[in-house]
Amino acid sequence: MRAIFLTVLLLVFLSAGAMPASGAGPAAVGEETAVGRTLKYKACEKDLARAVKLLKKRQAADAEASLRQCLKIVPEHYEAHYLLAQVAAERGDYAAAVGHLQQAEAEMERMAGLCRAWQAESEREETAERELVSGEAQDTMIKSPCAANSTKIDTGRLDRERGITSGSRLAPLDPRRFEVPAAWHFAHGNFLYKSRRWADAAARYRLALERDPRLGAAWNNLLGALMLAGQVEAARSELQQALQAGADVNPELRRAVEAGAVR
Question: Among the four 11, 29, 151, 220, which has the fewest Cβ within 10 Å?
């Protein structure tokens, strides 16, 4: 259960930065919006917080019950699925763990899409609003006897007069907040590794290293997965990259890769 405790700490950190704030502006994708999705997540806050506390106390069964309650409200809840993946792995059900992580990652991608749509809509509204204000200002200047003496439109002043300020509109969330973290890719790789899906595991370790090249454990696991998949040359190539990145490669594993022999 120590692994669960560590991942819970990670989750708490990620949640603080990844969850959108209530009251954020809309961005429609079909019938879904970033705001609507956020409100659904807020309805699960108590159950999720309870599950995190229970996992810290190593009460996996009760924690799982709270997480299942989250899924009744939001079946795609990515944090709940991530924690359920950890719980499943602890009892040795790696297939279920992989399934939960796949659902978590799909939901994060969906949330990123909502945020991209929100950004696009916000940019369209801002452009249209500014063009409207500027157009009105131009009309006023043409009619004004002082127009000939003016060479610049103070759009900032016009915004202030119309009550349009930078603080009056909440900025869209950055879609990058919903990028799958290196630790999640690493965990996904480990579950695939335990399922003896070596090539799939290697792909996940590579994704983890794209996010964080300093993740030494991912380098070692990547080399092991490639060797078990029979991809010796790929393992040798990755070994050189690992050494260049300053990774602490297991000496026995390094010798095995260099010799082309599976441990």
Answer: 151
How far is CA 24 from each of CA 13, 37, 75, rounded to the nearest angstrom? 21, 11, 22
Tokens for 79?
């944090």
Q: What is the pLDDT of residues 114-127, one digit of tens each?
A: 888 888 888 888 88
- What would the pLDDT profile of 50-67 be if each residue is shown by its tens digit? 999 999 999 999 999 999
8 Å CB contact between 70 and 44: yes
Q: Are residues 6 and 98 in the same domain?
A: yes
3-state secondary structure 154-189: CHHHHHHHCCCCCCCCCCCCCHHHHCCCHHHHHHHH
Q: Which of 168, 175, 166, 167 is nearest to 37 (CA)?
A: 175
> Per-residue DSSP letters for 209-224?
HHH-TT-HHHHHHHHH
Mean pLDDT of the chain: 79
What pTM does this model have? Answer: 0.69
The answer to whether 138 touches 153, Cβ cutoff 8 Å, is yes
Taking Cα atoms as reference points, which of 112, 110, 81, 111 lies closest to residue 98?
81
Question: With b meaning 16 or more CB within 10 Å and e meaning fewer, what string describes 16-25?
Answer: eebbbeeebb
In a domain, 158, yes or no: no
Query: What CATH number does residue 79 fall under?
Result: 1.25.40.10
